[in-house]
Amino acid sequence: MNISLRGCEELLPQEDWLNKLAKSEATGVPLRIKLGLDPTAPDIHIGHTVVLNKMRQLQDLGHTVIFLIGDFTSMIGDPSGRNSTRPPLTAEQIKANAETYYRQASLVLDPEKTEIRYNSEWSDALGARGMITLAAKYTVARMMERNDFHDRFKAGTPISVHEFLYPLMQGYDSVALRSDLELGGTDQKFNLLMGRHLQQEYGQEPQCILTMPLLEGLDGVEKMSKSKGNYIGITEPANEMFGKLMSISDTLMWKYFTLLSWRSEAEIATLRAEVAAGRNPRDAKVMLAKEITARFHSAAAADAAEQDFVNRSKGGIPDDIPELSLGGAPLAIGTLLKQAGLAPSTSEALRLIEQGGVRIDGAVVSDKGLKVNAGCFVVQVGKRKFARVTLA
């Protein structure tokens, strides 16, 4: 129970989960624990691994974990937390994304002990008649209690009928898999409770639900998201991953420890007390960054990333930086940064110069109208982006 509750937002109902654990211990039959992810993007970031970590903790206790790829539900589009209709993905997009999902999830889960399922297995077979039967088991009034639907309806924002099918189909997944526990982020609570309701409708013992907090991104404010640019991808290079983890605030670091680290809560509490007593919080952050980087790369890569970070913090240039050749000298600095892949646009490049975030051979660039002459030099943007540019 302590492992189940670590870092979680809600575990409902706790008494039912305790009974399920006791029954499992008495019978020797593992509990079935389900996590569903829709392959809406090809990559997983460490925000996604919060629930994967919980799955791994329960997997290590001997329970059966089911990694469910929502290839069918992706075609509907999850409306959770949205104020507009999510465009459904094509079958080709879903297939391409799903191919990378499990490979990445296996960096957290034990692939030898993980059951992989696709919800098209039973959803496609349901057919129109089965869909009507399923839809009859829930009311429109109950569906409209959901915050995002309620808010959109009140604001006069369109809600498509197919969006009502999403929570129904996610709930039906729990029926098909006979799950004992379903995990998800706090934004999934309605969908998780739907599974519990439908299992009762189909005469099954209802699952418990466990929600995990949504992890703030590097900005410490918004939920980690690729669209917001505040994420750490689990397939990013080790140096980039380490550097990003070192950039989080000293306060947010402790939430990352609780939700992402394999260290025990006692170890984390001791470390936190040491920092409160005067130990440099940077020491703790290095420990976190090395642990996470080693998990997705290797211990050697984490050590090298730490050394790279130290070199950069002293103003040094990393050993391994991109090299490229450009033409058009003398070239406007904004254009150079864009062509070198150091800024997504000229306007963003000029904004970075305004902020003092651009250096050429270590010297800060302050002139947005600078024309760079031919030559070979190292261009740096921020603390982590470098390129050795030969301009002709």
Automatic annotation (TrEMBL):
Asked if ATP-binding is a keyword of the record, the answer is yes
**RNA-binding S4 domain span:** 331-392
The free-text function statement in the UniProt record for this protein reads:
Catalyzes the attachment of tyrosine to tRNA(Tyr) in a two-step reaction: tyrosine is first activated by ATP to form Tyr-AMP and then transferred to the acceptor end of tRNA(Tyr).
GO MF entry, a single one? ATP binding
Primary location group: cytoplasm
- Name of the molecule in the record: Tyrosine--tRNA ligase
Q: Which InterPro entries match?
A: aa-tRNA-synth_I_CS, aa-tRNA-synth_Ic, Rossmann-like_a/b/a_fold, S4_RNA-bd, S4_RNA-bd_sf, Tyr-tRNA-ligase, Tyr-tRNA-ligase_bac-type, Tyr-tRNA-ligase_bac_2
Instruction: Tell me the organism's taxonomic lineage.
Output: Bacteria, Pseudomonadati, Pseudomonadota, Betaproteobacteria, Burkholderiales
E.C. designation(s) = 6.1.1.1
Q: Where in the cell is it found?
A: Cytoplasm
The record's comment on protein family reads: Belongs to the class-I aminoacyl-tRNA synthetase family. TyrS type 2 subfamily.
Query: Which residues does the record give as ATP binding sites?
Result: K226
Q: Which organism is it from?
A: Caldimonas caldifontis
Biological process (GO) annotations? tyrosyl-tRNA aminoacylation
Cite the record's note on assembly: Homodimer.
Q: What HAMAP family does its record include? A: Tyr_tRNA_synth_type2 (MF_02007)
Q: Which Pfam families match?
A: S4, tRNA-synt_1b
